[in-house]
Amino acid sequence: MAEFTEYAPGTPTWVDLGTKDVGAAARFYSELFGWEAEDLGEEAGHYTMMRLRGKNVAAVSPLMNEMQPVAWSTYLATANADETAKKVKDAGGMVVSEPFDVFDSGRMAVFIDPTGAPILTWQANKHIGAELANEPNTLIWSELRTNDVDKAKAFYKEAFGLDTEQFPGMDYTIVKVGDRPVGGMMKIGGPIPEGTPPHWNVVFAVADTDAIAAHAEKLGGKVVSAPSDMPGVGRFAAITDPQGASFTVMTGEGEPPAPPD
């Protein structure tokens, strides 16, 4: 069990799904991962919290407008959303939504990085982000898929203080807070079709990648990349849910990466 009560700035702290049918999406992920759904009501825009063993792990939300794609979003922790917004602008990013308070839960903002990928930030108050992570059926990793990794490295270093290093023997960049791996970056191409818009992909840990992939298909999802092994890392599968949102599941080898204290 991996419980968290705070996250260091720059760490992926929360993920939520913007979707056309919140009820259907909540049922899909509840049946797939064993999550329990709670609609927070009309005042909260029917933002639906997804929990595991009573702990917040993710959320499902209606789309805010017709232009918003059905997709998972990643939030990076910040100690000060307003200062982060300024750093984003100075680093060449675009502020889509200036920082605003979400009741007494926290303060957030929405950005587009210079490579075109949406990214959000979260300044925690009563809602710290995922209370469980790095265990089966919870978030274990977020990775930026982009057309310009070098530009992304420079931006996330300046705006969020994230360090990077090359993964040995692979064209893959590890994203770090201090000396702790917290995410990754990779260039669109190869297994990611050309023309895919830059985005942050979410990865959920599972106990059995093959079983989860098969179950997702029974629930109406689609396995777009069959389960395969990455030596020394784990077994992965890429899936889209019935409304088209993509995510990855993995069964890891050894100890999972842990957010900094």
Our count of helices gives: 4
Radius of gyration: 17 Å
Distance between the termini: 16 Å
Query: What percent strand?
Result: 35-45%
Strand ordering within the main sheet: 2-3-4-1-5-8-7-6
Query: For the report, how would you describe the main beta sheet?
Result: 8 strands, mixed
Helix content: 10-25%
Question: How would you characterize this protein structure?
Answer:
The protein has 261 residues and is an alpha+beta fold. It folds into two domains: 12-124, 2,3-Dihydroxybiphenyl 1,2-Dioxygenase, domain 1; 138-252, 2,3-Dihydroxybiphenyl 1,2-Dioxygenase, domain 1 (Roll). The chain is 17% helix and 43% strand. The chain has four helices and 16 strands. The protein has an eight-stranded mixed sheet with strand order 2-3-4-1-5-8-7-6, with helices on one face. Helix 2 (81-90) runs antiparallel to helix 3 (149-160). Residues 256-261 have low confidence and may be disordered.
Essential attributes:
4 helices, 2,3-Dihydroxybiphenyl 1,2-Dioxygenase, domain 1, disordered C terminus, eight-stranded mixed sheet, 261 residues, alpha+beta, 17% helix, globular
